[in-house]
Structures are given as structure tokens and as C-alpha cells.
Design goal:
The complex is a heterodimer of chains A (218) and B (252).
Chain A (H helix, E strand, L loop, with lengths): L1 H32 L2 H33 L3 H34 L10 H21 L3 H31 L4 H33 L4 H6 L1
Chain B lengths: L3 E12 L2 E12 L3 E5 L6 H8 L9 E9 L2 E2 L5 H7 E4 L11 H11 L6 H14 L3 H4 L12 H13 L5 E5 L7 H14 L4 E5 L3 H7 L2 E6 L2 E7 H6 L4 H7 L5
Parallel strand pairs in B: 3-8, 3-9, 6-7, 7-8
Antiparallel strand pairs in B: 1-2, 1-4, 4-5, 9-10
Helix pairs in contact in B: 6-7
Classes of the chains: A mainly alpha (218), B alpha/beta (252).
The structure holds adenosine-5'-triphosphate (ATP) and magnesium ion.
Chain lengths: 218, 252
Amino acid sequence: MIEEKIKILKQKIIEFGLLVEEMIDKSIKGLIEKKEEILKEVIEKLEPIANRFEIEIDELCIEIIAQYEPKARNLRVVLMVLKINNDLERIGDHAVNICESSLFLIKRPDVKPLIDIPRMAEESTKMIKDSISSFIEEKIDLAKDVCKRDDIVDSLRNQITRELITYMVEDYSVIERALHLIRIAQNLERIADLSTNICEDVIFMIEGKIIKHHFEEG
Amino acid sequence: MESKILKFENFSAGYGNLLVLKNINLEIFEKKITAIMGPSGCGKTTLIRCINRMHELNKEAFHKGDIFLNDKSIFEMNPVFLRRKIGMVFQKPNPFPHLSIYENVLAGYIINGIKLKREEKDKIVEDCLKKVALWEEVKDKLYLKGTQLSGGQQQRLCIARSLALNPEIILLDEPTSSLDPKSTVEIENLLEKLKDNVTIIIVTHNISQASRIADYVAFLYLGELIEYGKSEKIFTAPENPKTEEYLSGKFG
Ligand SMILES: Nc1ncnc2c1ncn2[C@@H]1O[C@H](COP(=O)(O)OP(=O)(O)OP(=O)(O)O)[C@@H](O)[C@H]1O
Ligand SMILES: [Mg+2]
């Protein structure tokens, strides 16, 4: 039965979402606690699992399409899963980028106490969680809410950049380290963007029409 | 007589158990271009990062001996103050992200809260960009982000930034290694002009680049300074056979 298959598909997406959340959590935890082993775990252990998830979900979708030729709503769900799958994989890549910069940073003195970056990370992981549950439980209001929260992350990124530029101007020896922190903030911002993409797709799936453009105005 | 601005005295440095620089004695001449050369891993980057005390930022780093800037030990100076006198341009161009070209040049003023009139700002931006020969190319698009420029333009913008505080020395670690040949020539021409006012120390792997621009060459091999002198001399008749081998491309 196609309904059974779709259930499995949704279960896989939930697990994949939890995995990339863990990847982001650990990339920041490794940075804050200066623990190389946590960062290496993300790169060496979790990233390969994420890649396997992506392939597995992809194959499952293709199988469903070939076998059941889903129509209308079911087709939209399967197509959304394909897109979400791709977004989650990219989120995983961003977590790996964060780990790489963190590995550089933990061997060097702190540029500043980290307050906004953990806040950004918390906000972004929450956006992933909510985007996935808006999909699974088909909660259109939650999806719309996530889209709005994108601004919070953007403004945090802006604030972090401005502050770090101040440090870089005062002493260029912090430039390398500050650029790595900015890179981390940019990756978190991309993660939030990708969660927003997922929510826009969810809204499309439920309402069956593209809302991307009206939404930006509202 | 050419005067000396920087002096290494029995200077050694490394990371953890690894001794990278071995008892270096070296004097750098003022307002000249000195090229630091040698095979990969011989300690060139480590050497120049000692000069502005960035080496110490690494947790494992250590050093022994002394470095004098105008006869004063750099290790007795405030590192931030030292870095005002010794600017640095990194291997990869790194303009401040999200700032325009105009803001990149002025960043030091804006952030230190120095109030300037519109005309003063415009003048500083124009002067600095002219110094690095970037003005003609960007004068109509000063509001583009610094990161939207080409690699060579970004590197010149970074040189402008390093000049903003009127340093006595600028350090450049392979500043053209990520650039195309045309941008490389532009940077080389620029350095030749700048040396009227500032001492330049440049790490380069590029032998023809060193022979084009350097007045002096220091050759490092496995952490030792094995040859140092005027570049005409080193490029025509090096004394150490290792230098000869390197310059004839036998290893790198
Ligand atoms: N952060 C570090 N921690 C430990 N060892 C390091 C570190 N940085 C450099 N080294 C080691 O110190 C030695 C000298 O490195 P350095 O980067 O100074 O060489 P280099 O001459 O600049 O080489 P290249 O031409 O490849 O840039 C090398 O053996 C290198 O592995
Ligand atoms: Mg180097």
C-alpha cells in the first residue's frame, strides 16, 4: 500500500532531521567546550550516516513513484520529501563546515566570549525541528511561523559580523579567527534559510499552490 | 649606508616538540624588499608570524632568543601596538565581509569612532585607493561589497587596509599565490612603489617574482638560514649548494 510506504518515508525524514540537528548541536558544543573529539565525530561518523540517509530516502521515493504512480496529494508529498531530503543533506554539509572552522578556532585564544553564536545555533536547530514537524503533522501555522523567524537569525548574523569587524580593525591578528566565526554564523544563517525553504514547501504541499512570493511581502 | 630596522638574534621557534626555526640571526634593511624563500615546510610562514607576534597565538607555540624592532625587543612591546607598526597581508585576500569598498577603507576610522566630514572621508578613500592603484577601477562602484571585487582587486584592497595605520613594515605571506598572472604583476608593481615609504618582507615560492622585486633574499632550509644577501648575488652566484639546487628547480 502506498500509504504504508509514505509512512516509512515520513519516519525516515524525521530521523534524518534529528540527525542533522545533532550534527549542528555537536558542531557548536565542540566549539564552546573546545573538544576536538566531538567535532571529529561529526565529520567522520555523523556525516557519512547523513549521506546514507539521503541515498536511502531518495531511492525510496523513486521506488514509490515507479511502483504506485502516485497522484495529486500523494505525489506532492513524495516530491516534497525529495526536496526536504536535499535540504537536510545540505544542512549536514553546513554543520561540517562549522566543525572545520571550529577545529581551527579551538586551538587558538578566544576572540570574544561566544554568546550570539550559540543563540543562533539554538534558533536554527529549532527551526529545523519545527519545519519537520510542520511537514509531518501538516501544521500550516507552524510552517508560516518558521518563515517569520528567519529574520531573527539574519539579524543575529548581522550583529555578529558587525561586532567582529570591530575586533578585526583593532588588531589584524584576529582576522583569521574572526573570519572563521563569521563563516560559522553564515553557515547557521544558511541552515535557517534551508529550514525556511522546507516550510515554504510544506505550505505548498498543504495548500497546493506556491506562496513563496506573497509570503515575502507579508 | 643602508640602515637596519629589524634584527633576529639567536632566534628559535616551533610548535610542541617540533623545532621549526633554528637559531636564526638576520638583519632586515629599512625600506627595502626582502624575500623569504625556501622549500615548503622550511619555516617561512612561522618566521614572519613571529615578527608580529602572531606565532604566540598558537597554543603549542614556543620561541627562544630575541627579535628587535629599531633596537627594542618586540617581546617587551604591547602586541597590539606592535601590530600597528607591522602590518600584514595574508595569503588569501580577506576584505571585511558585508562592508562596501568605501567602508573597508574607512573601517579603522568608523569603528574607532573618529568623526569625519563627508569630504574628509571621500579624500581618505581616494588617497588610499590611489596608493594601491585601485582607484581608477573602482571609483564608480565604491558601494559594492569588498568581497565582490576580483581576487587581485581584493588583495590590493587588503594592502590598502594594512597601510591605513602607516606601518613601518608590512609582511606578506605568498600574497599572489591565489592570483592570476596579471593581478600578480599589478601587486608586484605596487610593492615596488610602496617601498619608498615602508619596509617590505615577502614570503614567496615564486623564484622569478623574487628576482623581479626583491632587494635582499633570505634562504631558509630545514629551519636554518643558510644564505642571505643582495638578490643579484643570490640569483647569480649563491654560495650554498642547497640554494643553487633550489633556484635551479631541483626541489621545492
Ligand atoms: N600550527 C602548527 N602546529 C604544529 N606544527 C606546525 C604548525 N604550523 C606549521 N607547523 C609545522 O612547522 C613547519 C614549518 O611550517 P611553515 O608553515 O612555517 O612552513 P612554510 O615554509 O611556510 O611552508 P609552505 O611553503 O608550505 O607555506 C612544518 O613542518 C609544519 O608542519
Ligand atoms: Mg607558508
